[in-house]
Amino acid sequence: MDVRSEGGAQVRFDKIRGAVIPKSRFQIWFIRVCSSIVVWTCLVQLVAVGQLWHPHILSGLTSRFTQAPLSVEKAALQLPPARNYTSNGFLKVSCNGGLNQMRAAICDMVVVARLLNLTLVVPELDKTSFWADPSDFEDIFDVNHFVNSLRDEIRIIKRLPKKFSRKYGYQPLKMPPVSWSNEKYYLQQILPLFGKHKVIHFNKTDARLANNGLPIDLQKLRCRVNFQALKFTPQIEALGSKLVQTLQGKGPFVALHLRYEMDMLAFSGCTQGCTPEEAEELKRLRYAFPWWREKEIVSEERRLQGLCPLTPEEATLVLQALDFNKDTQIYIASGEIYGGERRLAVLRSAFPRIVKKEMQLDPGELEQFRNHTSQMAALDFMVATASDIFIPTYDGNMARLVEGHRRYLGFKKTIQLDRRRLVELIDLYQNRTLDWSQFSASVKSAHENRTGQPSLRKVVLDKPKEEDYFYANPYECICADENECRNQLRPGNSSVAR
Q1: Which residue in 71, 190, 242, 470 is a FRET match for 349, CA 20 to 30 A apart?
Q2: What mean pLDDT is reported for the chain?
Q3: Which GO terms describe its cellular component (predicted)?
Q4: Mean pLDDT over residues 78-92, rounded?
Q5: Vertex 127: Cα angle to 123 and 131 (nearest 5)
Q6: Same domain (yes/no): 200, 301
């Protein structure tokens, strides 16, 4: 190698370095730009070809590139700051009942945990009730959203630390708290127990918090959990939204919560319209479940007291009396109707546009929810909440929670049927004491002020079971204050029984 020539070249290079370097940088920059264009062109072509042959293969990949940073940024912005507090112990809860009973219980247990400065373990759901639904919390609700959205109020963990597990010989205190209790009960009687038992397991949670008389911040926290923290899983939300959009695409619709189901009839002892064989079957079911305390029930007495769900035939007369016509689209929000299509024949004849989720969705779309009663109920909950008019034939937990959601969403119309008055009117019409015009006018008059308009809850001192349910009318979360709610009331809507 010629070192001199090499050195000479180096000298010449140094002399013109100022000119050469900019040119070299331009070339490198130009090559990089061209390479990037080529790579992105290939990627676009690859995606296009992939979409032609297998549209779903690349969708996840591309959406991950385009959406993930935005989702992370959005989640970071919405995540509330964690509350810093010294935990007094761990609260474990087992909810009992159906979906909506458990939903209300979850809201109450969050409030209890916040009041006592506890760490809440993600609630266990009922798997042993009549419905025998094996669903866990995360199968119905978005567990990460639940945990993160409440982090500024309480700490929520998905499972107890290992040292508190049965495997290590730890036995938590199991107990059901006293029903309809206020904050003083929990502060004075439950909180001291955590000094001795680091973990307490509430094995029943239904109706364990008072409807009325609680501080406003606790009432608002109940609403925050119910309306914001308890979101259904993305799978339920997606299918429920599709169901709602399908119904809305066909025009306005009524959601009829026809609670004429086997468990309801057996529990209530109502057998109106049933065959003797069906009545006996319902009685056997009632005896099969020990927690159904009443065994011998006179159906007709219950019906006249307004304690039975309306039959499909009775519901047909009421809808017609309220001027719903044959063109009305009616969504049946319920499980399997006892007696099947035989009991729906009169209703379907009067209202041909009756639909159910099984009629609106492909069997494959519902397959993942079959044998999961609470997940199917979640779909009905979404549709009932979104409906133009909601009419429950019984004031059970779903009816009351849907009513509360509809109030929260702007007092959407909910017709609260006065069953005691209705069965009286129906009997008068059927024995021809009333003609149709009189019957229809009486039904309308009885429900003029029962459409979910603003009102205060009825308070019955020392009889909480007879009070209006908090979750059916959480007015503290709807009005700025109680005075504003009172100003919105129509005459006769507010009552306090003493």
Answers
A1: 242
A2: 85
A3: chloroplast; membrane
A4: 93
A5: 130
A6: no
Instruction: Please give the C-alpha separations between residue 274 and each of 113, 340, 345, 423, in angstroms, as whole numbers.
Output: 46, 12, 14, 17
- The C-alpha atoms of residue 121 and residue 156 are separated, in whole angstroms, by 6
Helices vs. strands in the chain: H and E counts, helices first: 22, 11
Which among 183, 213, 229 is the end of a domain? 229
**Neighbour tally for 357: CB within 10 Å:** 21
List, as one string, the DSSP characters of 339-397. TTHHHHHHHHHH-TTEE-HHHHS-HHHHHTTTT-HHHHHHHHHHHHHHSSEEEESS-SH
Angle at 271 between CA 267 and CA 276, to 5 degrees: 120
Question: Structurally, how many domains does the chain consist of?
Answer: 2
Residue type, 323: D
Which token pair is 426?
């129906």
pLDDT per residue over 163-200, tens digit each?
A: 887 777 788 999 999 999 999 999 999 999 999 999 99
**Mean pLDDT comparison of 19-23, 144-148, 166-170, 368-372, highest-scoring range:** 144-148
The C-alpha atoms of residue 215 and residue 330 are separated, in whole angstroms, by: 40
Beta strand 459-460 pairing with 389-392? unpaired
Nearest-angstrom CA–CA distance, 374 and 367: 14
Domain end residue (candidates: 197, 229, 261): 229
Structure tokens at 378: 């979640």
d(C-alpha 45, C-alpha 50), whole Å? 8
Distance separating alpha carbons of residues 357 and 31, to the nearest angstrom: 58
Q: Looking at the structure, do residues 158 and 138 belong to the same domain, yes or no?
A: yes
User: 92 by DSSP, 3-state: which?
Assistant: strand
Cβ distance 165 to 54 under 8 Å? no
What integer pLDDT is reported at residue 17 of this predicted model? 39
Residues 332, 394 within the same domain: yes
Domain that holds residue 158: 89-229
- Claim to verify: residue 300 and residue 321 sit in the same structural domain: yes
At 479, which amino acid appears?
C
User: Which tokens go with 262?
Assistant: 């086997």
Do 225 and 275 sit in the same domain of this protein? no
Measured CA to CA, the distance from residue 111 to residue 224 in angstroms comes to 10
Q: How far apart (Å, rounded) are the C-alpha atoms in residues 31 and 46?
A: 22
Query: Do 197 and 150 reside in the same domain of the chain?
Result: yes
Written as one letter, the residue type at 324 is: F
Distance of alpha carbon 23 from alpha carbon 14, whole angstroms: 15
**Which pTM value belongs to this model?**
0.82
Looking at the domain assignment, is residue 125 inside a domain?
yes
- Distance between CA atoms of residues 135 and 153, nearest Å: 26
Number of residues assigned to the chain = 498
Cα gap 110→154, rounded to integer Å: 8
The β-bridge relationship of strands 173-175 and 354-355 is unpaired
